[in-house]
Design brief:
Length: about 90
């Protein structure tokens, strides 16, 4: 699948520590190849139709939506903060 990122995602990504950015890059690569890769632990977000979450690491998540053959990255950051407003 193709990957595109909303501006909100890009801003949040730039604020992440460099090591978390590297982990996010790796997970986004997995996401583009197989959104159900085991390390992503991909799941739908309850109450937000069409919005999914994937794991970056134990403390960080990213959210995305799928439109046709493109994954649109919505936001990335601390697990609790991201899931309050995915």
């Amino acid at each position: 699948m193709k990957i595109k990122a909303y501006e909100r995602f890009r801003r949040a990504y730039r604020e992440l520590p460099l090591d978390v950015q590297r982990r996010a890059d790796k997970q986004i690569s997995f996401l583009s190849e197989n959104m159900y890769h085991p390390s992503l632990r991909t799941k739908k977000i309850k109450g937000k139709e069409g919005v999914w979450e994937a794991r970056v690491d134990y403390h960080h998540r990213l959210t995305f939506e799928i439109v046709e053959d493109t994954i649109f990255l919505r936001v990335v950051g601390n697990h609790d903060v991201v899931l309050k407003n995915p």
